[in-house]
Amino acid sequence: MKRINFLFPIMMLAVLVLDVFIYIDFVKYLNLITALVLVYYLGGVLMLKQYISKEDIKVSKLVSLPVLVSVAFVSYLIYAIAELALPRAKDSIGAILLIATGALVFSMANFIVYMVDRYEKSIYLFVTACCTLFIDGLLAINEMYYYAKVFTILINLVEITGLYFLTSFFIETKLIETKSSKGKYF
After folding, report:
1. What pLDDT does residue 179 have?
2. d(CA 69, CA 183)
3. Which of 36, 52, 55, 73 has the fewest CB atoms inside 10 Å of its own CB, making it the most exposed?
4. The overall pTM is greater than 0.85
């Protein structure tokens, strides 16, 4: 039976309070929202830290064509969203940079565990990272550029999906047992 990490309830509480302040007034409470988002991301990174070891991080795996294309795509996405949202948030550039940095670090931690592929449910972290990036991008557009109720519904559905997969990973994952195949071939 797995123990509950004290960070997980703190992360979920941060998301709950965060959502309330987003619905009340995103721009007015942006600094508080930033702090709560960073609590969630920092807690997630600290929880994922136990699934990453130095031996697992190989430059050849992390610097490959698919990874470089993904980094280029995410970088362009962040640039495009920032270009849309920054005119309305000129006074909050620091908060936006903190949120973007937190999202990238949290997503990188998820992607590293996924790419190392040592855990059964690591695909759940890939889904979580994609949800995180989608939520942050669409939320910035919805709150600072063009508001639409459909975006709000979509953000909530994707947020629930991301939290479900993150929670499922922490509950269900197990280390993949690697069996040596040296004796089976020639």
Report:
1. 56
2. 38
3. 55
4. yes
